[in-house]
Backbone:
């Protein structure tokens, strides 16, 4: 959708006098439009690439994000055709674009730990369906997609970890963000961290929300891991095992467009 399409959608759903402020490039080819309303409040108009993503994000904003209070945007309007939402704009820039001293960065990760702990508690845990089996099926999908771009040894390694993950069942699932990375943590001038972009959110294994932090950030910054876990809570043995096994699925899907191990 063009910026004009999004503006017209905002005017139809929310405010006929809305005025565009800026056009933001999003992640994975998406774009959002920042708009100011006649109440001088800035909002974000976000289109979705699929109905599935749309339904997931709308559900997350209605059911789980309210538990975060001012730590997440608020849903103002939603449209199914075309699939899009209007949410309040949160102040600041993505954490990965903010240069902070080590102490401020550690504080940001402590806040992130509290945000994720709160999100994971925003819905009652579920034991069904068996999510370990679903993840193993997803691994087979990505293996097929990768074809000969991954080696037979790495393919076998992924399958071994998926079998080990299934052996841990039954495991409870909770509301998860599933793109819990600094690009989706907005750091404001007030030092407050807020979480955005819930289009991947669904019930899943809680340790899955930690995979990308644990594999892409914490190895070089153990101090940020310690700060995060000080608020989130220490990981159980099961959490650590899920984290290890799920990291192979993440590596497989992450490397789907590139030669792998």
Residues:
């Amino acid at each position: 959708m063009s910026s004009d399409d999004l503006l017209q959608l905002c005017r139809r759903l929310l405010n006929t006098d809305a005025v565009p402020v800026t056009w933001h490039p999003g992640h994975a080819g998406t774009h959002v439009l920042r708009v100011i309303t006649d109440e001088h409040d800035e909002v974000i108009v976000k289109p979705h690439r699929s109905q599935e993503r749309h339904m997931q994000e709308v559900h997350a904003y209605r059911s789980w994000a309210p538990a975060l209070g001012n730590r997440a945007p608020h849903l103002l309007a939603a449209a199914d055709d075309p699939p899009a939402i209007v949410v309040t704009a949160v102040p600041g820039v993505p954490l990965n674009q903010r240069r902070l001293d080590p102490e401020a960065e550690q504080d940001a990760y402590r806040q992130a730990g509290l945000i994720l702990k709160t999100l994971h508690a925003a819905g009652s845990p579920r034991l069904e369906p068996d999510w370990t089996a679903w993840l193993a099926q997803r691994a087979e999908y990505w293996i097929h997609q990768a074809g000969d771009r991954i080696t037979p040894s790495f393919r076998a390694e992924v399958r071994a970890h998926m079998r080990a993950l299934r052996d841990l069942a039954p495991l409870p699932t909770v509301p998860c963000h599933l793109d819990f990375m600094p690009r989706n943590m907005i750091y404001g001038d007030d030092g407050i961290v807020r979480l955005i972009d819930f289009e991947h959110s669904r019930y899943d294994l809680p340790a899955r929300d930690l995979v990308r932090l644990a594999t892409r950030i914490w190895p070089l910054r153990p101090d940020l891991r310690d700060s995060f876990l000080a608020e989130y809570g220490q990981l159980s043995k099961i959490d650590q095992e899920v984290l290890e096994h799920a990291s192979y699925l993440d590596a497989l899907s992450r490397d789907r467009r590139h030669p792998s191990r």
User: Anything to note?
Assistant: The chain has two domains: 3-88, 93-254. The CA atoms of residues 79 and 85 lie 6 Å apart.
